[in-house]
C-alpha cells in the first residue's frame, strides 16, 4: 500500500489529507489485510474465538468467520465500527485489546498502522490514524505486544502484519521482552516493502 | 450487539465485569443501552448496536 500515494504528487509520497477527506475515511482491505487474513484463516478451526484488532471494514474478521471462527472486531474509529457492523460482524469500539476479558481468544489478528511517518505529518483525520505508525512505525505495535498476552486463551496465538519498513526484528525483540516468542509465518514481496506475518505466543 | 458478547467484554479500565442495561432491542440484538462496570461504576454507552468501550478520555469523535 505504500505506492498508493506516489502519483498524488506530495512530498511525503502519500496523498494529501485533503485529497482523502470525504473520499475514504475507513481503511479498505489491500494486500496487507489479504495476506494476514489468508494466513490466519489457515490456522483457525471451527468454533475458535478470534479477535480482529483494528478491524477497519471488517475484512480479516469476515474471512475468519467464513473459515468457521467466531470472529469479533474492535476498532478505535467510530466510522470503522459502523462499517464493520454493517458488514454483519460483531464489533466493539475500543482501544486495542483493553475491553476484553483475559483468556478470551484462541487467535488475535492485528494489521496495525505501520508506516513510519514524520511527527509533523500526523493526526489530522481517521484515515491518517489508520495508516500512520508514528516515527518508527511501531506506535500501536508495541502497546499491542505489551497487552495481548492477557486476552489469549491457553495455547492461543497473536498474528501481526508488519512491513520491512517497520523493522520486524525490532518488533520481535520487543515482544520477547514482553514474554512472547515469535516466528515468521508468511512473507510477500511488494515493490517498496516486504510484508511479514509474525506469530507470537507465550514462551 | 448480541447479548453473548457480554461473555468476553469487560471494563477497559479495571477489567471487571459489566452490567447490561438495555434501552432498545430487536429480535437479534441490543440496539442501545448502557454498560456499567460492577467495580468502578464507569458507564459505557451502546449506540446503534455498537458498544463504546473506549476509556472516557478517548471518547471524543476526533482521533487523538
TrEMBL record, chain A:
Region: Disordered, residue numbers: 1-30
Molecular function in Gene Ontology: nucleic acid binding; protein methyltransferase activity; S-adenosylmethionine-dependent methyltransferase activity
Superkingdom classification of source: Archaea
Record keywords, A-Z: Methyltransferase, S-adenosyl-L-methionine, Transferase
CDD domains xrefs: AdoMet_MTases (cd02440)
TM regions (residue ranges): none
GO CC, any one term: eRF1 methyltransferase complex
Residues of the Methyltransferase type domain: 51-109
Biased composition (Acidic residues): 1-10
GO biological process: methylation
Family as reported in the entry's similarity comment: Belongs to the eukaryotic/archaeal PrmC-related family.
Entries under NCBIfam families matching the protein: hemK_rel_arch, PRK14968.1-1
Name of this protein: Methyltransferase domain-containing protein
Organism: Haloarcula salinisoli
From TrEMBL, chain B:
Stated name of the protein: Methytransferase partner Trm112
Tree of life domain: Archaea
Organism: Haloarcula salinisoli
Gene3D superfamilies: 2.20.25.10
Classification of source organism: Archaea, Methanobacteriati, Methanobacteriota, Stenosarchaea group, Halobacteria
Amino acid at each position: 500500500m505504500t505506492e498508493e500515494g506516489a502519483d498524488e504528487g506530495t512530498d511525503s509520497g502519500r496523498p494529501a489529507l485533503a485529497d482523502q477527506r470525504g473520499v475514504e475515511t475507513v481503511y479498505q482491505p489491500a494486500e496487507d489485510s489479504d495476506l494476514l487474513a489468508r494466513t490466519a484463516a489457515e490456522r483457525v478451526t471451527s468454533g475458535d474465538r478470534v479477535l480482529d484488532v483494528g478491524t477497519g471494514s471488517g475484512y480479516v474478521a469476515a474471512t475468519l468467520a467464513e473459515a468457521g471462527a467466531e470472529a469479533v472486531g474492535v476498532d478505535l474509529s467510530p466510522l470503522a465500527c459502523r462499517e464493520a457492523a454493517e458488514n454483519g460482524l460483531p464489533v466493539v469500539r475500543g482501544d486495542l485489546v483493553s475491553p476484553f476479558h483475559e483468556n478470551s481468544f484462541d487467535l488475535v489478528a492485528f494489521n496495525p498502522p505501520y508506516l513510519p511517518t514524520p511527527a509533523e505529518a500526523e493526526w489530522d483525520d481517521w484515515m491518517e490514524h489508520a495508516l500512520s505508525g508514528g516515527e518508527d512505525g511501531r506506535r500501536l505495535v508495541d502497546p499491542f505486544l505489551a497487552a495481548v498476552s492477557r486476552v489469549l486463551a491457553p495455547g492461543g496465538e497473536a498474528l501481526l502484519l508488519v512491513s520491512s519498513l517497520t523493522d520486524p526484528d525490532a518488533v520481535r525483540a520487543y515482544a520477547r521482552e514482553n514474554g512472547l516468542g515469535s516466528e515468521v509465518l508468511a512473507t510477500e514481496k511488494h515493490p517498496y516493502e516486504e510484508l511479514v506475518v509474525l506469530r507470537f505466543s507465550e514462551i | 450487539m448480541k447479548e453473548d458478547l457480554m461473555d468476553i467484554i469487560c471494563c477497559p479500565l479495571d477489567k471487571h465485569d459489566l452490567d447490561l442495561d438495555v434501552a432498545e432491542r430487536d429480535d437479534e440484538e441490543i440496539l442501545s443501552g448502557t454498560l456499567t462496570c460492577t467495580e468502578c461504576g464507569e458507564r459505557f454507552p451502546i449506540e446503534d448496536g455498537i458498544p463504546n468501550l473506549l476509556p472516557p478520555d478517548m471518547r471524543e469523535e476526533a482521533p487523538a
